[in-house]
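Example (one chain per record):
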Amino acid sequence: MKSMYAKIILFILIVGVLSACGTQPANPSISQPTEEVLPATEAPTDPPSDTTAPTEPAAATQPAVEGAPVSFTNDILPIFESRCINCHGGDKTQEGLDLKTHAALMSGSDNGSVVTPGDAANSLLVELVVSQKMPKRGPKLTPPQVQLITNWVNQGALDN
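Predicted structure:
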């Protein structure tokens, strides 16, 4: 019978010690770090960083930042060469769209023009890369690549 009382007392002591672990320290002069809670009317000054791709086409079709010209030769053509030429300019030109040169791109596809200079929102090329319908095979374009193409079209789709 004594062992049963000893077990009950031991159980009560263990429960008491474990429940005390979640309380404030015995010495109130020791402060615990707390998380700052902002009132509902205040917002943090630094927005959280977002590493995901934009999901709304409108976000990728905004006008380019001034002072950041995009070059077809240095910025756009390398993207096309790495992701698009296999189907649109190598041994194949699916839908009649050739992306090997500026002139070929601007001549369009079997379906007509794919770039409306100065208007990314109405350019089929931009629509297809923003919606990630293109490229069909292989890795999709990254958000910075999509933004470069969008900015280039908004800047007039120049052969530069």
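Caption: The two ends are 94 Å apart (CA to CA).
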